[in-house]
Amino acid sequence: MNLERNVYAGIAAEFTSEEELVAAAKQTYAAGFRRFEALSPIPIEGLAEEIGHRRSGVPYFMLAGGILGALTGYLMQLYALGYWYRLDVGGRPVNSWPLFIPITFELTVLFSAIAGVVSMFWLNDLPKLHHPLFAVPGFERASTNRFFVYVEARDPLFNPRSLRAHFERLDSIQVTEVRNL
Description:
Elements lengths: L1 H6 E8 L2 H13 L5 E4 L7 H4 L7 H27 L12 H27 L23 E6 L7 H10 L4 E6 L2
């Protein structure tokens, strides 16, 4: 089994319609596979939830980035105008929060956006310049008119023979064993 996991990157099955893809993905998930992808040229409503994908963690990183940005902006101004370059104008207090709002807001948005972009790249393992799935014959049609289900070899239930039989029962056009490069 370990030898198979070293040789194979996974198994890909090709389908011709959206309905076939949804049925195959549901049955693959029901069979116990968890490390697989359903690839489609069009968005399919609810498919991600059907195959067990959870919500992204990007919004939490953006929230943390926004809070860090707000604290950075506010404390930077408080330090600069209240301690380092203290200037008393008309009896204004050192902690003049209305004066600090614009820069605090701008740094909140900036840090949140940067955290969103960085976390999106990190959580999606990007940049990924090559994937073994790209070597599957006809995979370029996944962006036009073909649908694929790809089960990774890292899945605990991965067995090439039983998985090939599973996809053949689902009336796939082609089942391809994807090898590691």
